[in-house]
Design a protein that fits this description.
Layout lengths: L2 E3 L5 E6 L4 E6 L5 E3 L2 H9 L6 E4 L23 H6 L4 E5 L4 H9 L4 E4 L5 H15 L2 H20 L7 E8 L2 E5 L4 H8 L3 E2 L8 E2 L3 H6 L4 E5 L9 H8 L5 E4 L14 H12 L5 H7 L3
Parallel strand pairs: 4-5, 4-6, 6-7, 8-10, 8-12, 12-13
Antiparallel strand pairs: 1-2, 2-3, 8-9, 9-11
Helix pairs in contact: 4-5, 4-6, 6-9
């Protein structure tokens, strides 16, 4: 992230690579609209929640947003509502949200789009960038240093025998498998598991149940959003003839596998508890449901 002082000396000009734009920011950003829940949670963890003046509909899953205006969800953003908040900075992510970011930037709003995190390191990097954008680098260092320490502790305490884990994610009506180029890959590793699709050089793959069976998972983890599309995970397992243990992850604190904020480590710890980390794999399989 390239940053230059403005000619007046009391602001910054920051290049947003995703948009190919220069964003004019004050030295200390005081009015932030955060349209990505992981970034909102990061701002809370940095002690900067008082600077957040607008949020998305999903931010309340992770933090107490209070009376702050909700200006949209992930893709349907009310441009005029955002403008009315007179933000110094609008935080968004790439991927399918990029088009909305371009629209808001074209309307003259100070939009900064961060890259989609495809690893735990990517989550950490984005949080550091957010701290830099807000002009609060030390707060960002404190948060990300803590996260890296916690991740190191999880790695150091990983079980000797790692169960092979299949992860299926339902984005509304669209199921995907977690490949090697995802932060979910790292969550599974931190939890003490081994992602059966770790070798896939991509992020989210279309379902391939036959190949998944050939990879011999010890356990299936299925995530679905119960405020969107209901998924009968046990029924799916039965339809496929799968008899391995099932772990269901839903929109519960510490279970949301698709979240790219600081509490992703809570998800890793929750999954560690579910996997059990037993050295005797047969004993692990016998007791996974306990």
């Amino acid at each position: 992230m390239d940053t230059d002082k403005t000619s007046e000396g009391n602001g910054r000009r920051v290049r947003c690579e995703a948009l190919g734009t220069i964003v004019e920011l004050p030295r200390r950003v005081m009015r932030i609209v955060s349209l990505t829940a992981g970034y909102t949670e990061g701002l809370w963890e940095m002690g900067l929640k008082e600077r957040v003046v607008g949020v998305s509909a999903f931010c309340g899953r992770y933090v107490e947003v209070g009376e702050r205006p909700v200006v949209g969800d992930y893709l349907k953003i009310d441009d005029e509502a955002v403008k009315a908040l007179k933000p110094d900075l609008v935080l968004m992510t790439g991927g399918v949200q990029l088009g909305v970011g371009r629209r808001l930037a074209a309307a003259g709003l100070p939009v900064y789009v961060l890259p989609l995190a495809d690893s735990f390191a990517g989550i950490v990097e984005n949080l550091r960038r957010i701290g830099a954008l807000a002009g609060e680098m030390l707060a960002a260092h404190a948060l990300t240093d803590r996260m890296e320490r916690e991740a190191a502790e999880l790695r150091a305490s990983a079980p000797a025998v790692r169960p092979r884990v299949y992860v299926e994610l339902w984005f509304g009506r669209h199921p995907r498998m977690a490949g090697g180029l995802t932060f979910i890959q790292d969550i599974v590793t931190l939890a003490g598991g081994e992602n059966v699709w770790a070798d896939a050089p991509t992020g989210y793959l279309k379902l391939d149940t036959a190949e998944t069976e050939r990879r011999k998972p010890d356990v299936a983890v299925i995530f679905w959003e119960d405020d969107d599309t209901m998924v009968d995970a046990p029924g799916l397992m039965a339809e496929r003839g799968w008899t391995m243990p099932l772990i269901e992850a839903q929109l519960r604190p510490g279970q949301i596998l698709i979240h790219d904020g600081p509490s992703c480590l809570d998800v890793a710890r929750w999954l560690r508890g579910k996997l059990g980390g037993r050295v005797d794999k047969q004993a692990w399989r016998d007791n996974i449901g306990a």
